[in-house]
């Protein structure tokens, strides 16, 4: 081996041939790239996709652009996707590009990664050891992605960065996902992202195809498609290569044969220089590409074949070990291959690659099957003998690939399992799944003694310990299925995860030995997947798992099952059974010393305790879990603690505290890249902002969440909050639209009260605003039938209040008379099922009681004043404004307290105007107009009112007509009763509608009853 001499540097000056020194064509494309560079330098991030068939000139265009970028002082990060057999190395182009940036900006990149070096080391091992050893979850990958984007933004804050990712057609799933995330979320920094792909490889089922379609919808991304050269451009290319004017016949022949493909032009020139006269060129493209190889010395051809099978790039040391040539022989062989422009030394490294992948593919395809297996075995043996021959992050995957293609199952199975562990640690779950499926394929082929020597503790972490001795228990096929099921779930392929789980459950049912713990674990996983996929609520699966572990000694699996049951109950039926399950889950997890499961269970327990009335103890439990999770570095659990704590505080009416906790949670989640957790906390924060009357902030937060949420439930919550705000502001079409979006997200197969009850409340509010009393009653009946489980009072009281208000507003309308008594009885039944454990819900209960009294014509100003006093001490401005409006109404009806009523109306009007609550504002204005009260503090608030005046300018005759309209009379009936003609009655009705500002007779009747226009003057 070498004594340290840089062999790549030695060969760097070797003269190569057949590459045109002249950059031909592409002026428009190069201009687009340089313009993007200029915009990025000005602080506007840019993203470009370059597509074209193999050999059309994508790399050459990028090289020309990078020369320009370097001249302008930009820092380049260049990485390419790696084709290694059939496997892509996870995150390969990003790792390579970041390594390039780290080499050029070591101090700056380290500073940009400050505090997150461990997590980012999954992409760039030079930053240190990987981060915390938290249990893998759905947020792990998103966290890594967020931190990567933040790293690039920080690095590009005061310098221009050009990030180039080549050969996306070979990209692994994790790379594609990271690229999508980067292009979607990159919003600041002086950065240009350029990615290239082979367009002719993107067949209908190619995994890059949906990504390209998705990116096409982003306006911030520009696609550049490279076409083939024209005849004139081929002529220019030939002139550059030959350094002389080409023969016209050669130009015509080459253009016709190459069809304008720049790389084929070069290869045809090589063929011509090798002695093939025009007209005698090979008919086979593969043979054409091999011409350059066949003109080399034997050792150089041998090295070329070895490099072709080693992957996209082969390190010098590894090549030396596999070729078994002496150092002098290898250097001479490399010199010949580089001189022939077949191989290139890798920039900033010690390896070699083919100048074009088409040639590598042709050389690899030319290998005999036995020859290919032998070369892969040599690669694997060399790597086992000296693991330092390749980078640490590539070692496991490459070793697994070499052994797999060597067709040695005894070596391949443990190597593939080792690679699966390595990819899991990098959060590359799609690649982990692919490797695990390969392990399943090898399982039966591998000798039994090899399988018996494998241990779950080395290769599997999905199962909690099942009571077996980890030192002696062999890895089983079920262990592989468990790992694969979790990997599929974490990679987002829930359908695949469900299919794997079903396979495992069938195997367990057919097994001779009973294995209840493993079966229970798979049933719990299936419950989670069924719920996530909207196929059901998962209770049947959880019940099956509980039955399986019943009577068994405590175990981690038992704790997981109980946590699942408690979590199910917390969301859907937070009663004594859920509380008991949570308590036992904590006990079992402590018994088996599974602290991560214990923290999960304690958090659920604390949430259930607070909902059950043991408020302070429940809140304290959640706070303790939060602090312990942070101390252990389990930031997902810490974020979940913020989510549940904020939700519990909101349920208690402590909205200001809930916002403070949410702000803390958002800061924590963002600092650790917990993107999905940010969405959940933002959803809770928006709910509390609505309660606090910070509606504009809630609107902005919900719209932002709708754009940025990575999972469905927070996105549904954003739509729900926007629907709530739209309904409160009188924007009924918008409310219906957002409500439809929320329903589509939540589905119908897993009704969870925290979603279904608010949706029903909004639907009732919209129906009431449109005068659809029958629909209000039907919606209330459906809600009553579904029930109000314990702890759902925060959603139940607003719903019941909306229904009661609708009944009160429609009092006196003939169309609403039928069924009113039954509707009021239904509201009272709902009230009896709702708890009021805190002042805010006690105030709601008072308000509902008063609305029921108003619906029956027996409201009292004294009781209304008690409701106002109850809300006045709370942070509930919208509810207080409504209560003040109703109190003012009651005072005016009772008479004698006009100054007090005017003050209440002014306060309610100011709040409604600030919130943008148009319906409330208009109600206040109508009542003030009816009572002849000024809403301006500068003007007299109360003046004496003529008993004959109503505030709307209705004449005595029109008041009489309005009374009959409210009673449901037709124009003909009105005419008969008042001894006027039907035409005159019609004119009076039209005048009344115009003066009241309503569209129809029903609205006029409702307004007349609501404003007491038919009573004595206010």
What global shape is seen? elongated
The helix content, as a percent range, equals: 55-70%
Radius of gyration: 37 Å
Q: List segments where confidence is low: pLDDT < 50 over at least 5 consecutive residues.
A: 1-18, 277-283, 942-948
The DSSP helix count reads: 51
Strand content: under 5%
Distance between the termini: 104 Å
Largest sheet, order of strands side by side? 2-5-6-1-7
Query: Structural class, from helix and strand content?
Result: mainly alpha
Major beta sheet summary: 5 strands, parallel
Mean pLDDT across every amino acid position = 87
Q: How many DSSP E strands?
A: 10
What does this structure look like?
Helix 11 crosses helix 12, helix 12 (262-273) packs across helix 13 (285-294) and helix 48 packs across helix 50. Helices cover 66% and strands 4% of the residues. It starts with 6 loop residues before the first helix and ends in an 8-residue tail after the last helix. It has 1018 residues and is mainly α. A hairpin with a 2-residue loop joins strand 3 (83-84) and strand 4. It has 51 helices and ten strands. The strands form three sheets. A five-stranded parallel β-sheet has the order 2-5-6-1-7, sandwiched between helices. The chain has a three-stranded antiparallel β-sheet with strand order 8-10-9. Strands 3-4 form a two-stranded antiparallel sheet. The radius of gyration is 37 Å and the shape is elongated.
Task: Write out key terms for the chains shown.
elongated; single chain; 51 helices; 10 strands; mainly alpha; 1018 residues; 3-stranded antiparallel sheet; 5-stranded parallel sheet; disordered N terminus
